[in-house]
Amino acid sequence: QRSQSAKNLHERMYDSIPQSLKSELLVKSVYQDSDIQMEGRRLVQSKSVGELSQIHGLSEFPVPSVIERLMSKSDDPNEGTSLSRMSLSNISLSRKSLYSALPKSLTTQDCLVRSRVEDPDIVKTKSVSELATLNSIADFPIPTNVERFIQNRRAKSVDQPRIELSGSDS
Length: 170
What we know:
mainly alpha; single chain
């Protein structure tokens, strides 16, 4: 009896698992044109690992064919029904159009670096542990643009005359 109940429990547990988790693993196979494969092999053989790892722009990322088809769809409904393979020139054109659709802030390679100024006298006179301790909120560094903003606000508040409201005027 005990083994029957254990079997029954096992079957009930297996039945409680959704069908999608019990189905056989389905693998999608990808077909790639032999010309594209040869071009890739030549590229890998002609460059070093360091050269292959460098990325110079977003256009070097592979774009899935579904997105390429969406980008290259025309307004003519008859052209959309034919499923013809895209040539390499069409792929590069669609990548360029995808690249040009991105905002300029993502495509430019301007490198903006902020520098940090350290007072050499303080660094020389204090130890690392003294520099690391915080005694008050005044020890926190404030960025210069925030300091300028606060100073401008203070200057404006000093320049403006204060209006005093008193109830004894009448």
